[in-house]
Q: What sequence folds into this?
């Protein structure tokens, strides 16, 4: 049976540099056309290139990934995907940074036990790191807010005629729809701005 070699790369918004992974896969002679790359979070496996890769895999194929956290960062889902790839599809996986996670070696009971144990530890670490990153981000945002840093787009200034239109609408001279049209905004936006405007009066 002819074995096809594949590689999988994942980078996220917190880790934009994919060079290390590309160099590592090139070192394993993975054909460029067989390298699949997602620029997405590792929280789950709902990734377009990963899904495309899985559809390509056949029994006996070999998949290289640089480290287990590039596969994912969800403890339970890493276990499920590993089981699906190695048991259900029947491919081999080699984690380049962790030689113990190479399913081509140690296919006896002891080798399988050690690989499973290492996989559980590393996938636990991958999820823990993700949770720590999220916690640090949340703490950073809270600290920035406490310093008065504002997030999101700056609010658009109200049109010059807003005050006049608002007072006519409030007096019942025009409908909300007509008022919104005069201000060049959707009705929902006009009403939202009206609530804010009233608080400032």
A:
């Amino acid at each position: 049976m002819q074995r096809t070699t594949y590689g999988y790369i994942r980078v996220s918004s917190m880790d934009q540099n994919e060079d290390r992974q590309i160099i590592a896969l090139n070192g394993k002679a993975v054909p460029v056309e067989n390298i699949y790359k997602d620029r997405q979070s590792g929280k789950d496996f709902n990734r377009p290139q990963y899904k495309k890769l899985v559809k390509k895999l056949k029994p006996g194929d070999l998949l290289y990934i640089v480290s287990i956290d590039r596969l994912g960062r969800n403890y339970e889902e890493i276990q499920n995907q590993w089981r699906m790839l190695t048991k259900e599809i029947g491919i081999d996986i080699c984690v380049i940074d962790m030689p113990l996670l190479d399913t081509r070696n140690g296919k006896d009971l002891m080798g399988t036990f050690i690989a499973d144990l290492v996989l559980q530890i590393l996938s636990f670490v991958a999820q823990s790191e993700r949770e720590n990153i999220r916690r640090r981000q949340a703490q950073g945002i809270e600290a920035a807010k406490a310093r008065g840093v504002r997030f999101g787009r700056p609010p658009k200034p109200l049109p010059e005629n807003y005050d006049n239109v608002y007072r006519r609408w409030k007096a019942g001279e025009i409908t909300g729809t007509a008022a919104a049209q005069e201000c060049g905004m959707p009705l929902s936006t006009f009403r939202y701005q009206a609530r804010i405007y009233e608080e400032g009066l």
